[in-house]
Amino acid sequence: MSVVLYDIPGPRARLRNRAIGVAAALAIVALIWYVIDRFYDTGQFEYIKWAQFEFRSVQLELLNGLLATLKAFGLGAVLALLFGAIFATGRLSDHLYFRAPSNIVVELFRAIPLLILMFLFYYGSRQLGYGIPALWAVVLGLTLYNGSVLAEIFRAGILAVARGQSEAAYAIGLRKTQVMTLVLLPQAVRSMLPSIVSQMVVLLKDTALGFIITYPELLYVGRQIGNRLAFGVPQVPVLLVVATVYIAMCALLSWFAHWLERRMREGARKKGIPVVEIATDEVTGVVQAGPTGIAAAK
Amino acid sequence: MTTTTTTTRRLSPRQRAQRLRWAQYALLVVAAALAIWLADWPAIYKAFLRPDLILAAVTGGLFSALWMTISYTAGAFVLGLVAGTVVALMRLSPVGPYRWIASAYIEFFRGLPAILVFIAFSLIAIPFPGLQMPWEPYGTVWLALGLVATAYMAETIRAGIQAVPKGQVEAARSLGMPAMVASRKIVLPQAFRIVLPPLTNELILLVKDSSLVFVVGVSLTHFDLTKWGRAMANSEANLTPLVVAGFAYLLITLPLSTLVRRMEHSAEKAH
Predict the structure, then answer these.
(1) DSSP class of B39
(2) Contact, B94 vs A17, CB < 8 A?
(3) Is pLDDT at B166 greater than 80 in this prediction?
(4) pLDDT one-digit tens code per residue, B55-82
(5) What is the DSSP letter of A52?
């Protein structure tokens, strides 16, 4: 353990811990059992409520919903990364006439709930006489909100690269663009990766808001399936299924992030590139950066 | 092509970069001008910023909606803070099952879209008929929002606890403080100072997430900003109230994010 918050347990404490552990586990199991029992009593596990999932058409519906979610996620992720890169550059610019508008845009879109942005795009475009499809209202909302957050992440990452790096680069005669693309970005990306991916997880989850503006993504399809009277309005079973799918997708994404991070770090170590480690940056708010790769490289 | 022409023709890298930059500026200016010229400003004003509706919105319940948003958020934040601290301590506990329960809880609620939690709470009467939350509708909203907030805040607080230098606890323990007292009097106070800026960020996220009350059925007097703005936009067939609601969120979030920036700045100075 990294913290000596608790005593190192002696034989009696170990016994006590084991007892507490068992009791806690039993309490949780009892709680889960109670919920399942309530579900059972109110008929959530009856065959009719689950029968829909056997139909090929319903499976296809769910699959289409999943694809729609992934489509919004993919478009939103790419555009948000682009938006973030542009506005991070704007915020880091030496010129006030780039910096000021970028600051305003980023601050504004970070401060307004995504739901309101989606409403404004969806219904606003209708009021102006050209209705954009729900998909694009979702994607635009996701792009503006997550792009602004990403811009902040990019900016923090680039500022976290040790100052000596850019000073050295300027000293050997590189220009601003070169310093950024050759020296700062490659180091910053590696340290920003965890934050970027956790923002991607947020983006993936936020696609679910699309259901409110009738974008037929996974949750929307789920609600439709769950409202069918002929199958006993199986809202609870459908919600269980949809929730499982979301959790699986998010877990997959974070697992991919861990894998990517490890790979990049190992690759960098092998080549002897110093890795800027941002120690719990988003948490402590204080960025503690230091090269670790040199010592590890042989 | 002879060598002389190529040498006179070739630009230095600096010149090339300069020309490219001017081309970019020109493109930006042209794009901005086009956007301004092509946009139908009167129509945009009429759709989003009708003065009479702005006035009607401000006098017609904006502040009570703002107050509802604040009270939904505040309750959820308090719940998240208390439960988050408990879950964070469980995550660091030497008791295995505590750690597993805490990790499972955090992973579950961080992998679930918050809106799904709200929908689940709106369906709670199906498996639990007759279940009455205390302080309706606050109880439902606080619990739904608080459960999600707990997972995020637990991770933040855990990192804060781990960021307290080890020597602090070691010193306290060697002075003879029991572990519980040391963590209550030495570790937690310092950890909370460290996590103050990120916790404020969580609060900002929570303010925005309170807009998800949208999917829960609450009575008219308990509408939060988003729901109120949407309802009024519906009845007026105009989006101005929703824009007003959006700007009302800025009243809460902008001061908070300024506060975060100031705290981070002073923390950096202290280092």
Answers:
(1) S
(2) yes
(3) yes
(4) 888 888 899 999 999 999 999 999 999 9
(5) G
Beta bridge partners of A291: A276
In CATH, which of 1.10.600.10, 1.10.3720.10, 3.30.70.1030, 2.60.40.420 is domain B56-270? 1.10.3720.10
Total CB pairs under 8 A between chain A and B: 199
The predicted-structure confidence for B116-147, as pLDDT tens digits, reads as follows 999 998 888 888 877 777 877 888 899 999 99
Give the C-alpha separation, B28 to B208, whole Å: 32
DSSP state of B186: I
Alpha helices in B92-224 (DSSP H): 96-111, 114-122, 138-163, 166-174, 179-182, 188-209
pLDDT at A275: 56
The 3-state DSSP class for residue A288 equals: coil
Angle B153-A275-A280 from CA coordinates, rounded to 5° = 10
Q: Please return the burial class of A68, using the count of CB atoms within 10 Å of its CB with bins 0-12, 13-18 and 19+.
A: buried
Chain A interface, mutation test: which of B95, B203, B205, B216, most A Cβ atoms within 10 Å?
A: B95
For chain A, the structural domain boundaries read 49-269+289-296
**Which pair of structure tokens corresponds to residue A151?**
């811009």
Q: Which helix H or strand E contains A176, and what residues bound it?
A: helix A176-178
Please determine, for residue A273, whether its predicted confidence score (pLDDT) is greater than 80.
Answer: no
Q: Chain B window 172-231: which residues touch A at a Cβ cutoff of 8 Å?
A: 173, 179, 183, 187, 194-195, 197-198, 204, 208-209, 211-212, 214-215, 226, 229-230
* Structure tokens, A32: 């889960």
- HSE-CB for B90 with a 13 A CA cutoff: 23
Q: Which of A59-73, B1-15, B183-197 has the highest mean pLDDT?
A: A59-73
Identify the CA nearest to B148 among candidates B114, B195, B186.
Answer: B114
Nearest to B107 by CA among B124, B93, B87: B87
And the tokens for A136? 């694009």
Angle between the A96-111 and B240-270 helix axes, to the nearest 10 degrees? 110
Q: What is the ipTM of this complex?
A: 0.84
Q: Looking at CA atoms only, how far is residue B140 from chain A in angstroms?
A: 17
Whether A109 and A144 have beta carbons less than 8 Å apart is answered as yes
Residue of A88, A144, A154 lying closest to A113 (CA atoms): A144
Nearest Cα to A281, choosing from A186, A124, A153, A96? A153
Which among A101, A104, A138, A146 has a CA at the least distance from the CA of A121? Answer: A138
Nearest CA-CA distance, residue B175 and chain A, Å: 14
For the domain A49-269+289-296, what is the CATH code?
Answer: 1.10.3720.10
Helix A96-111 × helix A56-92 angle, to 10°: 150
What average pLDDT score do residues B209-226 get?
88
pLDDT one-digit tens code per residue, A275-294: 555 444 444 343 333 333 33
A33 pLDDT higher than 70:
yes
Q: What is the DSSP string of A239-264?
A: HHHHHHHHHHHHHHHHHHHHHHHHHH
| Straight-line distance from the first to the last Cα atom of chain B, in angstroms, rounded to the nearest whole number | 62
